[in-house]
Amino acid sequence: MRTETEKEQLHLRALVAARFEQSMTIPEAFFTAESAQIAEACWAMARRFHQGGRLLAFGNGAWATDAQHVSVEFVHPVIVGKRALPALALTNDSATISGLMSGAESTASFARQLNVLARPQDIAMGFSPDGSCANIIAALTRAKHLGLLTLALVGGNGGLLKQRAVAGDRLIDFCFVVPTRDPLLIQETHETLYHVLWELVHIFFEHEGLLNE
Amino acid sequence: MSELGGSEYDRLFYPFLFEGGKASIEDVLAQVRHSTIEKCHEVVALRRATLEQFGEQIVITAQAMAQSFANGATLLAFGNGGSTTDAQDLVTELLSPPFPDWSPLPAIALTNDIAVVTAVANDVGFDNVFARQVIAYGRPGDIAVGISTSGNSANVLAALEQAKKQRLQTVALTGYNGGKMMRSQAVDFCINAPSDHIPRIQEAQATVYHALIEVIYAVLKSIKEEQSGEHEIC
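^ Those are the sequences you sent over. The predicted structure of the assembly is below.
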């Protein structure tokens, strides 16, 4: 018979194995389904960078760190020989964000930053685990009106952002839905997604003729 | 690793890419789709290897961390570049957990205060930016978590060594072969994602600390149950 301690160890070992298992099956399903959209998004992003555009990234809570992560990848590529590309995380400016959050329209914080900072050739990348974060929708709506390329990295069923991606106004140019409700899995798959977007945007710089289309 | 400047694979299957800008958009998009799937398979394989080699170590590490939290520890997390954002992510998931039955735990990311980081870097040097904060914040029994894809980042290693001197519990998340941190006496627990490609290492490390958090909460729950059971007996 197993002791209580052995049972506990087996239980914990199973928890770890189950989390890793999900972290293998979800990306497999997601990237198989989305590779065509990812390739199109890389091309669109490369054309924006070629026009002098910058990446502006934003998200809430844990995804604020992803906004910062994707920005540092572009600005300071870890792979030797890749060119530095301009990217900003709107979440880094705690003074401005807390100032805007304390005002009457706290859901407009990122949108207001975009109003001042964004240029029409820029790229907006918003993260929302359920696809319905009010401040992310407001920011991407603002970005679209300003002429930016809009990307939404979401999860669950895609929420309102997915609806707005397919609806008539096409608010979102590229909407990537990680098909799970587990926030940790959504976030891990987003991390691979923005790494892949960053790694593969660079392919298009080798084909300058394709950047002017 | 398939690099876009021209891996063997690319040259074999996409010779048109290397014929001086003659590639059509359809061909390039096909290459990007292929590379996307390939990178996904890389991270899946790396997660499998990490689980096989370090699954047991993740459990042991999380049990020790849970015991420290039960004793009142604060977690200090640090890293450079993308690893800093992972340290911040670990911290926010403890302070503001994503699941309702996980209660918040005290944690500080040592890159959140840009005034401190630039002050120390400017006055003493960048190798000391985290060690200085460990001196300021670290108490015996706290937890120091250093994240480094190479396992060699000087400022992360220095902070882990400082933490050990102050009797903190020390945890390192590494990549490649684990580097100096894997062999350091100052590191109590090292969990390695065995790869030489930094983006994939970071993605596997995210799964590692997510698994650590999950086990920490499971252990804290059973510690709590044990304690309430003891109270009933009394």
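Residues 22-233 of chain B form a domain with the Rossmann fold fold (CATH 3.40.50.10490). The longest strand of chain B covers residues 169-175.

Shout if you want it in another format.
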